[in-house]
Amino acid sequence: MPVNPGLTLSDPEARHLLRRTGFGPVPKDFVNVQGLTRGEAADLLLDFRAKPFKPSGRDFTKLHNKWFKFMLKSKTPLHSKLVLFWHDHFSVAFTKVQDTDLMARYVQALHVNANGNFKDFVKAMNRNPAMMEFLDTVRNHNDVPNENYARELQELFTLGVKDFGSPPQNNYTQADIVQIARAFTGWDYDDHGISSMNDGDHDYEADFPARGPKVIYKTTGGFGASGRDYADQGEGPQEIDRVVDVIFDHTDSTGKNTVARRTAYRLCEYFAHPSPALATFVDEVVADADFDTAWNISALVRSILCHDDFYLTAAADYGASGKKSVKWPIDYALGTLRLLQMKPKGKYYQITGGSYSSMLDHLSNMGQVLADPPSVFGWDWESGWVSSATLLARYNFARDVTSARGGGGAFRPEKLVNLGLTDPDDIIDAVAAALGVQDHLTAADKTALHVYLTDAGANPTLDLSDYDTRNTKLNGLFALIIESPAYQLH
Fold this sequence. Notes:
The chain is an all-alpha fold. The chain contains 23 helices and 4 strands.
């Protein structure tokens, strides 16, 4: 089993680990993990208490900016990275909820549960008021049950539509959706954001005998033809927890736990690379972490970070084929600001260069706004992040941050690069190291950057102490690397 916590990290592996588990690791982050084993480094990164961060604010912009600022300043970036994953997984959008207090409570729930017990996390989402608004639990009444949450609870949050069998098999049926919807009838929340069940609006079997017993998974899940009765501990508010208990016992057509496999697969995609190998990566980290019984998120993440497959592209040529991931816009923006030691400024949280756009505008143009994913499916990853419009938005962001000159939000390359360097190749190496891509720039990349710095050989050395040279060539070099595939990809 290639979960190898005892292997010592190479320097490229240490940088890879920090990129994937945080946002723009700075030199001191590298020093903290250099020379550690995979297990020691993973334990260090996972050694945090889940802060109950709640972004207050009467309007959406304030809520968004406070969340972004919290991530930018975080000393435990893996926590924020997990929260971002769960925000996509348990997608809730302000566009529909239209209540900043409910959204703040939702963000708080993500932070509290991000590294805990996954079964408890799902049960908490059952009761979360923002989720109840977003997926219509508050509109689920006993006369005509609303099936929206029951469907997404299975399709997106736990089982997935189909399993990993060959050929893939359905994990649930329409009948299961109908029956699970009954469990959530009558649920609502009060003015204080406390959820509870209205007994008079709940679907009790005696009141609706034609709907039959509350039995699910008669044809899937490995429960046999009799299925499972989720009202076995009585009807009432406890049913929504019992539904989750049953779902977490579901097995796929190969006999593996369905929830554990799917959740681990998505986390492997997020932290490692697209299309992780099922048998030799996903199933191995599930087994190593006992995730199919213990449901401990931290233990599962630790196993992923100690697996050989996680480090496949630690020192890869980005011009070659391989399992690389496109940075999420939030990751791209946060990482850049951290690496450049910059902070957005003012009431509108602006980048003080180029277009002087706010972070909200920059991220909206890149295709990812915190607290407002496009649908219940969250965001489309990988190639979904890339279009002519979103790539241009990334390039505009690179332009703006590297051209920020005045005030507290200025970009100061002299803090990152020795201005005494004169050789173009040394300058390229120094900037690549400052941006954390020294393991990934190709020979062709370096040649193109050399041509840029020297004006195709016309100026074989540079004087970085000269303001004009620094203001054009050095700042431009930072911008070009931030725009490069080596930087855009993990």
